[in-house]
Amino acid sequence: MFFTRLRKHAKWMFVFLALVFAVGFVGFGIGANQNASLGDLFRGDAGTSGNLSVGDARDKLQENPKSAEAKRDLATALQEDGQTNEAITVLSQYVEQSPKDEDALRELAGLHLARANALAQDAQIVQLRASYLTFGSTFSVPLDLGDGATLGTDPIDEAISTQASQEVSAAYGRAQASYQSAEATYEKLAAVAPRDPNVQLELAQAAQQSGNVAKAITAYERFLVLAPDDPSASIVKQQIAQLKAAQAPATSG
What we know:
single chain; mainly alpha; Serine Threonine Protein Phosphatase 5, Tetratricopeptide repeat; two-stranded antiparallel sheet; 11 helices; 2 strands; disordered N terminus
C-alpha cells in the first residue's frame, strides 16, 4: 500500500524536518534572524547605494567573465531582484575565486538554507496532496471473494499511489540536497572563521537539518568550547544529549 512505502521512504524526513523546525529555529531563535537579514537583503536594505541592476551587472560580467568583482555584483543584483537560484549559482562561482570571503560564504550559506526551507515547505504540501489523492485506496477494504481470497489492488489506484510516492520522495530529496549544500558552505565558513562560535552553531543546525547527526554533534560541542557561557549553552547541551540518544539504537544495532 502507498502509506507503507511512504513510511519507509519519505515519512521519516517529514518528521525529521518538523523536529528541526521546532527545535532548531524556535529553540535557538536563529531562523527569525536569518529571515530578517535575507529579507533586508532582497529588499536592498543592506546598502543599495551604487548597486547595479541585473542587466547592468550581466553586461559588466560579459565584458570581463573572469572578474570576481563582477560576479559578486551580479549575485547581489540577482538577490535584490528575488532570483535566488541564479544568485546561488553566481555567488558559488565567486566563492570559488574568493574562498576566504567570510561575508560571501555566510551569505551563500544563508541562501542555501532559505531555499532548503522553502523546498521543505513545498514537500509538505506535496505530501498532503498525495495523502488526499490516495485516501480512497489507502482506507478501502479489499473485496472478499471467499475462502480467504480477495480482489487484487485496483491498477488505477496503484498507479496513483506509485506516482504520489515518487513525487513526495523527489520533493523531500530536493530539500535534503539544499540542506546538504548549506552544510557544506557552513563548513567552508567554519574553516575561514574557526574561532567564531556563531558559525559553529549555524553549522550544527545546517548539519542537523541535512541529516548529518555526527557533524551536528561535533559542531555543537565546538560551540560550547568557544562560548561556554553563552545564553544558548544549556539548550545546546540538551540538543547534544537528544542527538546522541537518537544515535544510540543505530550504534548498538
